[in-house]
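Running co-folding for adenosine-5'-triphosphate.
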Amino acid sequence: MLASKDIADILDENDFTLLNQFTTGNSESAVFLVRSKEEKKVVKLPTSQRSLDEITSNISAYRTIHEWGCEDILPPYLEIRSYKGMPYIVMSYLGEDFETKIKRSKNPLGMYESLCGPLERLYRITIRGNGGGNKFLALVRNEIFRNFEQFLIPSGLSSSKYLERIKSIDFSDDDYLITCFSPYDFTPEDIFISNSGFFYPDPKQECKGLPQISLACFAGVSRDAYGLPESVTGYKILEKFAVKTCSEIVDISISSAERLFLFGRALQCSFSSRVRIYGDKEKASYFAKESERHLDLL
Ligand SMILES: Nc1ncnc2c1ncn2[C@@H]1O[C@H](COP(=O)(O)OP(=O)(O)OP(=O)(O)O)[C@@H](O)[C@H]1O
Ligand SMILES: [Mg+2]
């Protein structure tokens, strides 16, 4: 993996001047803001096996996004380079991410509203009608199961009876034939929205999904995990968009869309608990209970 000396070498050989290091996100990748000639760029470098896996997964998702014809959500300049056989990413600087920007915005509510238009367009142009929704939901269920089995239960924040509960969640009665670009890991620090458009520079492989799960994740993180400005109303805006507009896009009933939204919240709360287990046990416990509550409502 890249050590500090390698990072210094990379910056040097590209003639990049280091301006800042980004600290949002939960991964171990080193993400830097640099000056390259007259422009600002962002460089994302692997510093551990986990971050190399994430970057490899970013690269594979970039390919999928091109195949889908929605590459306008990627930074206008995007290049994969390599150093000692290790890939790293160089891309345009997109300004402040949603999380950073909304904290200083004079119109936070407008920011939630301005998300719906570009997302609706993205969902519509990436619609695929050949099934896959049930497979995506099985993936979401596996993630919840893993969070409980490997993290929440061993640390005493939940009980093993929830493993059976999670396994018994059944979506097979509903037919989720349509999927579209909507990763389940969809959070405010990964999204950029400005006059130049909507950008998503940190996609992972599992991009083919159902919008209700993505939006539940985004809304839940915005309100309950980050406490972003106006997020109580912002949550309602996104929930309504997920249930009404997006149920029509993926051709499911309103009640199925509501159920998917709850499932997405169960996933988000299990992640929000997991990432706080060592740093903030009280919050981790709150989110574990919230994940259980959403599972019980399903
Ligand atoms: N092109 C960009 N323009 C502006 N800021 C960016 C850009 N890319 C990333 N950032 C900032 O850096 C942060 C971390 O980057 P990114 O989301 O790619 O990595 P991560 O989530 O830490 O990594 P991983 O993909 O390994 O999970 C983002 O949350 C965002 O604030
Ligand atoms: Mg990220």
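Result summary
The longest strand covers residues 16-22.
Residues 98-297 form a domain with the Aminoglycoside 3'-phosphotransferase; Chain: A, domain 2 fold (CATH 3.90.1200.10).
Job closed.
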